[in-house]
Design a protein that fits this description.
Layout (H helix, E strand, L loop, with lengths): L1 H25 L6 H20 L27 H8 L19 E3 L5 E3 L8 E9 L3 H13 L4 E5 L1 H6 L1 H9 L3 E4 L12 H19 L5 E2 L7 H10 L3 E2 L4 E2 L12 H11 L6 E5 L2 H16 L3 E2 L10
Parallel strand pairs: 3-4, 3-9, 3-10, 4-5, 6-7, 8-9
Antiparallel strand pairs: 1-2
Helix pairs in contact: 4-10, 7-8, 9-10
Length: about 325
């Protein structure tokens, strides 16, 4: 009996020892259930933060003070002043302080060289002011330009090439004062008696000279003595020039120097021929410069305006 009890006790001890060894093998050393739970929770929080707020965890957030943030003074930053300018619309400028918008074409020239409205409703009582044979004298030109400005009038200055060659600064003055430059041939010769080659040289040399001096190419041509002939018309057209003579001659070129009544005679000549659309021929002469202010005043008193040459259609 006693031996049996001892055997049972020994068996129980052996069984307990075997169970203890099995638990030790299935549980890794240094790992606790609490630590495992904390690691899993941290992983769960990281995943949730990435999916829930894609600006964090995927791309670095731009901070106002970081290198990636646009700075108000940087090249990449939107400029408030630029936005304000562009929102108003661009107003291109030609460099003279005047808008580069084209002058509306409202007039044309008829077969009598008068300037007439294209459409009904456009003012008919207008005249075209023109001055031939310059540029030759600064004092005269300046006085004429001042008078035109006073009356807010535009005119065509038909120039000769040889005079432009002698006085390029005077041509530039006319241009800078906002007046229009026309082509009056190089040497002031009777073109209808010349060959086409000679006429081309007379017209095209002036075109180039004016372009080189002012940056603008003439679009109006008046033949010297009003005598261009068919060849003059042909070459003018080939160069994009509107060919014209005149319909109201001041006869200032027939007057003798030092005649005190020249200005009054000039005014009377123009007023006696006055009609709507008058294409008035004058020259760069002392008595013309002296008469101009009074002439324009009388034209205004008669209800006439001064057509802007840029409003004249160049093809008839």
């Amino acid at each position: 009996m006693r031996i049996r009890q001892m055997v049972l006790l020994l068996t129980a001890v052996l069984l307990l020892s075997a169970c203890s060894q099995t638990e030790s093998t299935n549980s890794p050393a240094g790992t606790a259930s609490g630590d495992t739970t904390a690691a899993q929770e941290q992983a769960s929080q990281t995943t949730t933060g990435t999916e829930g707020n894609t600006s964090q965890g995927t791309e670095p957030a731009t901070d106002a003070g970081s290198d990636n943030a646009p700075d108000a003074g940087s090249d990449n930053a939107p400029d408030a002043s630029l936005d304000a300018t562009t929102s108003k619309g661009s107003s291109a400028n030609d460099g003279t302080g005047e808008s580069s918008e084209a002058t509306p074409i409202t007039y044309r020239m008829n077969n009598n060289y008068d300037i007439v409205p294209i459409d009904e409703g456009t003012e008919r009582k207008v005249v075209l002011l023109t001055f031939d044979d310059g540029p030759k004298d600064r004092a005269m030109i300046t006085k004429m330009l001042d008078t035109l400005d006073k009356h807010q009038a535009k005119a065509i200055f038909f120039v000769n090439g040889y005079r432009v060659k002698e006085n390029p600064e005077l041509l530039q003055l006319i241009h800078e004062r906002g007046q229009i430059i026309g082509n009056h041939s190089y040497d002031h010769i009777v073109l209808k008696n010349e060959s086409e080659t000679k006429v081309k040289q007379q017209i095209e040399d002036v075109q180039k000279l004016v372009q080189d001096t002012t940056g603008v190419t003439p679009v109006f041509f008046r033949p010297p003595h009003g005598a261009g002939g068919d060849v003059g018309r042909k070459v003018a057209k080939e160069n994009g020039l509107l060919y014209m003579t005149w319909s109201n001659g001041s006869l200032d070129w027939t007057m003798k120097a030092n005649h005190a009544n020249n200005p009054e005679t000039l005014i009377k000549n123009v007023m006696d021929q006055l009609h709507a659309g008058s294409n008035i021929l004058m020259h760069e002469l002392p008595w013309t410069a002296e008469a101009l202010d009074k002439l324009l005043t009388q034209l205004e008193e008669k209800g006439y305006g001064f057509v802007d040459p840029r409003s004249i259609k160049l093809e008839n």
